[in-house]
Write a structure and sequence with these properties.
Layout (H helix, E strand, L loop, with lengths): L16 H4 L2 H20 L6 H13 L2 E2 H8 L3 H13 L3 E6 L2 E9 L1 H21 L5 H15 L12
Length: 163
């Protein structure tokens, strides 16, 4: 209902300040926005962000075991099998016996997978540029550095200072 002439409109409901300034809430919403945009571009290709991540890792690292891929991406074994099955069904990867471990398989990109990996990488970059367009370039780079430092994907967690 509209306020009568001369009356003030009631204040719009809004999130509580502790929620609006919560690091977890902000990181979660930022990640959701970037992921939604990226996955919208991937959907016509039959892929999700998790598939894209695997393709990009294989494109950069070469053939890896499913176990190593799962560890790098923090994906459990059952989910990893399902993701690789999908990529294999799409003709983007192939499993080959690991010459160093008869019980294991290495996953590698096919020619089609290499082409798709390049396309996925372009989509990722485009979606990130769009998601971060409100920030100046220097702030976008600084945000990326801070998040990499916070998450420390390639490093063990720092030990607590015993002082």
């Amino acid at each position: 209902m509209l306020p009568a002439s001369g009356e003030e409109a009631p204040p719009r409901p809004r999130l509580a300040e502790p929620v609006r300034s919560s690091l977890g809430f902000l990181l979660s919403k930022a990640a959701w926005q970037v992921t939604e945009r990226f996955e919208a571009g991937l959907a016509p290709l039959g892929l999700e962000a998790r598939h894209a991540g695997l393709l990009m890792t294989l494109g950069e690292q070469g053939a890896l075991s499913q176990q190593v891929l799962g560890t790098l991406h923090r994906i459990d074994r059952t989910t990893m099998v399902m993701l690789v099955d999908t990529l294999e069904r799409l003709g983007l990867v192939e499993r080959q016996k690991d010459p160093e471990d008869r019980r294991a398989y290495r996953v590698q990109l096919t020619r089609k997978g290499t082409t798709m990996e390049a396309r996925v990488l372009r989509l990722l970059r485009e979606s990130e540029v769009k998601a971060l367009e409100r920030l100046p370039a220097a702030e976008r780079q600084r945000l990326r550095q801070l998040l990499q430092q916070l998450v420390a994907l390639d490093e063990p967690a720092p030990k607590e200072d015993s002082r």
